[in-house]
Design brief:
Blueprint: H1 5-30, H2 38-67, H3 73-86, H4 91-114, H5 124-139, H6 143-151, H7 157-189, H8 194-207, H9 211-214, H10 216-221, H11 235-245, H12 249-252
Helix pairs in contact: 1-2, 1-3, 1-4, 1-7, 2-5, 2-6, 3-7, 4-5, 4-6, 4-7, 5-11, 7-8
Bound molecules: fe (ii) ion (2 copies).
One fe (ii) ion binds next to helix 2 and helix 5.
Length: 254
């Protein structure tokens, strides 16, 4: 990230979790494919293909972080521990967790594409990887949600909302705590520790460029009555980014 240790730690911490995290999304959604209407079944297939490709590319990205001297194993171990707890819960809870995390990735992706500042310091290839991933997260943002709607179609509204609320609050807390932990660990490996590390990562995540603060409104929308991921139609961001990715990097975000 252009030599910025804080931005580097933030994105490396995020990428470190993708291979295992996305494999978990795939297994959680796949379990509910049987019996879904043909359209949704096809979308689940597309979702699986996209997530598998993301994992493949982030494995390469993570390899480069390791080659650059970072040890990602503490971050992976923490995720393994989280997943081992979640996997012990009923499949529908895992589907709910995936549905919530997919809302999270979709709103982060939206923000990443909308505001070029987030990746301003990234090299062209790294920026392209994050933008491509963001495009696809938006493309399939409703698949886990629609699968959840189908899986819980016989549930009373109240129960549905209660589970959705509880799981979203739970995964949000874990997401923020774990990614902060991961970023702090990577900063520590860069020799940045203590109050300075905390202040710099919190500033980066919440103030400037403030990715987490900027997605707060979209996060909140999840709890509104009648919420559906496509209530926010952000396909224009996909088209815009695809056009930019097709132009030489120097001109695209000039
Ligand atoms: Fe993904
Ligand atoms: Fe996804």
């Amino acid at each position: 990230m252009g030599g910025d240790p804080v931005a580097t730690a933030f994105y490396n911490a995020l990428s470190a979790t993708f291979p295992k995290g996305e494999a978990y999304f795939v297994e959680s959604v796949r379990l509910f494919r049987e019996g879904t209407p043909a359209k949704l079944a096809g979308e689940i297939k597309g979702f699986v293909t996209q997530e598998v490709m993301h994992s493949r590319e982030h494995v390469q990205f993570n390899k480069r972080a390791v080659e650059a001297g970072y040890d990602l194993s503490p971050l992976e171990a923490r995720l393994e521990w989280r997943l081992s707890i979640t996997r012990g819960r009923p499949p529908v809870v895992n589907l709910a967790a995936t549905m919530c995390l997919e809302h999270f990735t979709a709103i982060l992706a939206h923000q990443l594409l909308k505001n070029p500042r987030h990746l301003a310091g990234a090299g062209p290839e790294d920026a392209a990887l994050w933008r491509w991933h963001s495009i696809e997260e938006i493309e399939h943002k409703a698949v886990a949600y629609d699968t959840w709607l189908h899986a819980t179609r016989d549930w009373p509204r109240r129960k549905r909302f209660k589970v959705k609320l509880k799981v979203m609050l739970f995964v949000t807390r874990n997401f923020i705590v774990d990614r902060t932990f991961g970023s702090l660990e990577l900063l520590r490996q860069d020799g940045i520790t203590g109050a300075s590390a905390w202040a710099r990562i919190l500033w980066f995540a919440w103030v400037r460029p403030g990715m987490l603060r900027k997605v707060f409104g979209a996060w909140l929308a999840f709890f509104m009555p009648g919420f559906h991921p496509w209530n926010q139609d952000d396909r224009h961001l996909i088209a815009q980014t695809e056009a930019r990715l097709a132009t030489p990097a120097a001109e695209a975000y000039a």
